[in-house]
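ok trying again, last paste got cut off:
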Amino acid sequence: MQMNIGFFTETYYPTPDGVSHYLRDIKKELEAMGHEVFVFTLAGDTTEKNVFKPYTIPLFLYMQYRVPVSVFPFNLYRKMLKTKLDVVNIHSSFFMGTLGYRIARAKNIPIIATFHTDFSKMKESINMPMKDTFFWISWRYNLFLYRRCDAVLCPSSSTADAMRKNGMHRVEELTLFVDTEKFSNGKPGNGRKVVQYIGRLTKDKGIEKIVKLADHMRNDSEVRFSISGIGPEEHAIKKMVGSLGLSETVSLNGYVSEDRKLNTLKESSIFIHPSESDTFGLAVLEALSTGKPALVSENFPLLSYCDGECGMVPVDFSNIEETAATLKAVLLNEGRYRELSEKATAFARTKFSPKKHAEKLLEVYQSFMK
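nice, full thing came through this time. structure:
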């Protein structure tokens, strides 16, 4: 059965974050299966088919995201009402998520919520008056809205458990996926041992831990660190690298496009991801798909899908000495590195298919169709 699906989201491609890229990829997959997907967003490329947004300005606290100029975008709302939709899938609880909820109720169609980001853990990266109150209210509203949806989709088992504990009445675990054709194997370039991070530069991602690790390993001339991404901590990280005299050890690359990201991953030796706030870990999965082992935190969500080793090495990033020793043991032991690389690729390619994800997503949608 062909469906008309409405995505309501604050962010969409080419905004540099995992949610926007996921939405672009799953939209493409669903369209290839014969469905129509309409994206209503605050940030994205409206030259793409069925992508719509109101007039917006950059969010002053986090410039890569945007906010609407009008408190209520009447023209866009009329467009939403006129668009024939069979199901609404909201991807945030804020402005567009609330509009999506209103549209679903006005049309009397199913509304599904997808929980992507635990934004409550981003608080330390935002400087604003009364931020504790702001984040508390925002989190309570997120729970309020999602509890009223027909189902809540979560990208990992740990996130699904957390949502159930917060009173969600129907929670479905729906893991994300990786484009294994795009993120294919690559060999480290130039004979260098490059430790790579790609993602948002926020405190909850643990970026400072990477710089501290680089400082601890500054005398290991064969190891270099590369940090790619933008976010609220970008200035602070640049300042930290400069004050520690690490400009020769740590390269700060800023935002990297999709093509540059692929090249960056292929030319790196190992991926590093100290975050303890991820709901899934798409950046790590992309690195694994290119055959790069990854150092991750001990409670990283992807670890729950491992049967034995799968290219990820869990470490306690608060223990710099142990982390450095583990990193060197992987990088300098060719046999161990090759074994982890092979397991990384196999893990990414066998467990996280775009088609399987899309099929399960459609099953959830259809289960609520009248």
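cool. The two ends are 13 Å apart (CA to CA). The mean pLDDT is 90.
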